[in-house]
């Protein structure tokens, strides 16, 4: 229905541009936005210029980079009362970083993607920078998305994998048979493991956080270099993730039940 709605294509393009700009806190070139969104460069330039005129993006002409604009900050401030990240999530991420020494994250499901909302650095000096606030991955890619996908109903998983075409961008490790094996392993242990499938040497582990209806809506995750995720350490990291995910899910359900 959406594709037949007047203006729906334009709205979709604007959304893709804004989401791409949001993934680059230090700014992004128009060429990079064009590549990430699949839009032509002239179309990308027109959209960025129009968004800048409305204050939704900002352009640093000297550096040739685009940033999220002040109007988005104002709109986000108004929306925060409904969608603000609860303190419980911040506490869970902080505890995971302190207990493990790794970088810890809180991500939310948005349709067929996860978006990182919080990051807390651990004490270990060597870090992985695959994930930061604003970064989005499809479900099944990265440990947070794998954790969430693994606990969706099997019919939803099958429908998603049939339509997603993950191998085209993310490689053969994300073909359906391999992904189904990781889903099965995640369901067995309770936590997901990403063995450097996005960036060589960068490992991740994640656990789903369930909403009041029992659906996976968020995820807590850890990332770091491969030696920090050796086989004998993974069960302990998994236990910490599951403990915090349960604690956070309980807190969120309690908050949602308040009048």
From TrEMBL:
Statement: the UniProt record of this protein carries the keyword DNA damage: no
Task: Say if the entry is tagged with keyword Nucleus.
Answer: no
Keywords of the record = DNA-binding, Transcription, Transcription regulation
- Domain of life of the native organism: Bacteria
Gene3D superfamilies per record: 3.30.450.40, Winged helix-like DNA-binding domain superfamily/Winged helix DNA-binding domain
Query: Residue ranges of the IclR-ED domain?
Result: 71-254
Q: Kindly state a single biological-process term from the GO annotations of this entry.
A: negative regulation of DNA-templated transcription
Q: Which GO terms describe its molecular function?
A: DNA binding; DNA-binding transcription factor activity
Q: Where's the HTH iclR-type domain?
A: 8-70
Q: What protein name is recorded for this chain?
A: DNA-binding IclR family transcriptional regulator
């Amino acid at each position: 229905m959406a594709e037949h709605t007047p203006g729906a294509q334009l709205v979709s393009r604007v959304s893709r541009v804004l989401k791409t700009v949001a993934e680059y806190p230090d700014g992004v070139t128009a060429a990079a936005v064009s590549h990430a969104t699949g839009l032509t460069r002239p179309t990308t330039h027109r959209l960025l210029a129009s968004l800048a005129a409305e204050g939704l993006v900002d352009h640093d002409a000297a550096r040739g980079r685009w940033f999220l604009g002040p109007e988005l900050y104002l709109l986000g401030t108004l929306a925060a009362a409904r969608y603000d990240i609860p303190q419980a999530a911040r506490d869970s991420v902080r505890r995971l970083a302190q207990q493990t020494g790794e970088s810890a994250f809180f991500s939310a499901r948005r349709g067929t993607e996860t978006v990182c909302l919080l990051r807390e650095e651990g004490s270990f000096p060597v870090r992985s920078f695959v994930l930061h606030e604003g970064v989005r991955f499809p479900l099944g890619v990265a440990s947070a998305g794998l954790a969430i996908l693994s606990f969706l109903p099997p019919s939803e998983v099958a429908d998603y994998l049939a339509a997603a075409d993950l191998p085209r961008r993310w490689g053969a490790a994300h073909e359906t048979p391999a992904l189904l094996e990781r889903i099965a392993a995640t369901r067995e242990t309770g936590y997901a493991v990403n063995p450097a499938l996005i960036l060589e040497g960068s490992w991740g582990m994640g656990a789903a956080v369930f909403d009041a209806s029992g659906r996976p809506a968020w995820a807590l995750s850890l990332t770091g270099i491969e030696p920090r995720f050796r086989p004998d350490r993974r069960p302990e990291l998994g236990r910490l993730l599951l403990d915090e995910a349960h604690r956070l899910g309980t807190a969120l359900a309690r908050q949602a039940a308040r009048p």
